[in-house]
Amino acid sequence: MIRMSISKDATIHPSAIIGEGAVIEEGVVIGQNCRLGHHVIVHRGTRIGDNVIISDQTVLGKSPFKAVLSAITADKTFDPLQIKEGCVIGALCIIYLGATLAEQVFVGDLASIREEVSIGRRTIIGKGVTVENRTRVGARCKIETNAYITALSRIEDDCFIAPEVTFTNDNYLGRTEERKKHFKGVTLLRGARVGANATVLPGLTIGEDGLLAAGSVLTKDLPAGKVFLGVPARYFGDVPEEQLLKNQTFYIAETQKGDEGC
Exposure string (b/e) for 20-33, b if CB count within 10 Å is 16 or more? Predict the structure, then answer.
């Protein structure tokens, strides 16, 4: 049997189940009915709420490293990672210090969530997704397999991001010191949707219920309720009335319960 390494300064509810080879550092708090898989590493100070599932070989509360040429990674002290009640986190994920996952977030295998990221209630982060630092993701969003969410982005509630979508934040493509004054991620307003393999250029906004079609490259802001398509993406039509967020059964039910934002 492979031994666990659990700090005497960690607080673990007696009902929690810890897999073989787990490492749990000082100051960690693990709530009731949690299940941690084999070889999970929980770094110091991490807070895990009740009824959380963590799959094998996931790393929680990792400290960010700053490369010599890093332009955005901050050299600072971060708050502990917080994972709220009912979250499910897949295998081989890395979630950094300073991140916060609200209740019932689902994180697929191999996903990476960087420091100073907040994820809202019931949001799905798909397999292999990367959410870079200083990004906010709202409630009930779906970010699907291998999507890349660049640093400094903001995604409001009920947005949909299909597989292989890429957000960008540097119009200078790594050249000149001037670029550091202009870093800006992508903003998706409530109910915005982005199709598979689409690319959104730095600093752009997709308005409420806006839709960027699969394979498109967005080079200008996309207005609310409009469909853009192509390379570069241009106006194609209006989002059909029956697809508007306000007409979705799940949205009506959630808003009646007051489930707004993270």
Answer: ebbebbebbbbbee
Q: Following DSSP, what letter does each residue of 122-163 receive, concatenated?
A: T-EE-TT-EE-SS-EE-TT-EE-TT-EE-TT-EE-TT-EE-T
Q: Domain count of the chain?
A: 2
**What span, in angstroms and rounded, lies between the C-alpha atoms of 79 and 146?**
27
Note whether 123 and 161 are within 8 A (CB): no
3-state secondary structure of 84: coil
- Distance (Å, whole) CA 9 – CA 27: 6
> 156-185, pLDDT tens digit by residue?
999 999 999 999 999 988 888 888 888 999
pTM over 0.90: yes
Domain that holds residue 3: 1-64+76-116
What's the CA gap between 144 and 124, in Å, rounded?
8
Encoded tokens for 234: 């241009």
How far is residue 62's CA from residue 10's CA, in Å, rounded to a whole number? 17
Residue 185 inside a domain? The answer is: yes
Q: How far is CA 255 from CA 14, 139, 149, 210, in A?
A: 36, 11, 26, 20
Q: Are 194 and 160 in contact (CB under 8 A)?
A: yes
151 and 240: one domain?
Answer: yes
pLDDT tens profile 75-90: 789 999 999 999 999 9
